[in-house]
Amino acid sequence: MALIYDTHAHYDDTAFDEDRDVLLAALPSKGVKAVIHAATDPDSARFGLRLAERYPYIRVAVGIHPEAAHREQPDWLKQLEELAKDPRVCAVGEIGLDYHYPDGCPRGEQIDLLRRQLELAARLELPVILHDRDAHEDTLTLLQEYRPRGVVHCFSGSVEMMRQITDLGLYIGLGGVTTFKNARRPAAVAAAVPIDRLLLETDAPYMAPEPFRGKRCDSSLIAYTAAHIAALRGLDTDTLLQQTAANAQRLFGV
User: Fold this and answer.
1) Are 117 and 63 in contact (CB under 8 A)?
2) Cα 244 from chain centre
């Protein structure tokens, strides 16, 4: 039975150029039920929609990643709104804030772009997929202001912040990082997050779980992440996969 619902992947990445179609064709046979392709700009969204034409288990989030904010064109938001009319679009994402690099896009520009995309999601009545890297305070402030439906993907905050996020009705996305030996904070969050607010993801091709750390990740490897989180919570893996798939279906309507 297909139980894996990958709520965040990037199959337009060049890491998949040599065997993308072979890999995607095989994923359902490896237990993958659904995948959300998280776009980083309008071209990435169009790429995802082309994939969804060929692979019915793929759905698409349309958005501008904070690392792409400095490349934003005047009509990008209009393009996203047009792309979102496609019935295979289930969210606005990947959007958010990334303060990791000192020479990255200025924080004010990132916040302005995020505000406009949160407003777009509200207008389209779509959930959001949020990126938060070293920007916890501003992310939480904006979530409290706009109160969108959605998920904070690859969650890296504390258990306390997780509770603030889930109290707003949002979901927590966890991936392969939770399996890393030095990942104490993600493991604590994985053990404490309400089971009905947990989503699983890969961020493929990045952050493959142990024992594949450092290698290319794909959606089938969620099985390892799920087994690790299930053990932390005292559950069997199938129960965790069933619950997280139901959560994803409830949020994204897929």
Assistant:
1) yes
2) 13
DSSP collapsed to 3 states, 192-229? HCCHHHEEECCCECCCCCCCCCCCCCCHHHHHHHHHHH
Backbone φ, ψ for residue 200 (5° rounding) = -105, 150
Look up residue 247 and give its two tokens.
């959560």
Please state the length of the chain: 254
Q: What is this structure's pTM?
A: 0.96
Q: What is the pLDDT of residues 21-62, one digit of tens each?
A: 999 999 999 999 999 999 999 999 999 999 999 999 999 999
Provide the H-helix boundaries in 55-158: 76-83, 107-124, 136-146
The closest of 162, 161, 152, 73 to 118, measured between CA atoms, is 152
Nearest Cα residue to 128 out of 54, 193, 63? 63
Q: Which phi and psi angles does 57 have, rounded to 5°?
A: -80, -5
Instruction: List C-alpha distances in Å: 222 to 9, 125, 165, 244.
Output: 11, 29, 23, 11
Q: pLDDT tens across 127-152, in order?
A: 999 999 999 999 999 999 999 999 99
pLDDT above 70 coverage of the chain, percent: 99
The residues, any chain, with a CB within 8 Å of residue 178's CB and separated by 6 or more, are 186, 187, 189, 190, 209, 225, 228, 229
Decide if pLDDT at 1 tops 70. Answer: no
Q: Is the pLDDT at 2 greater than 80, yes or no? A: no
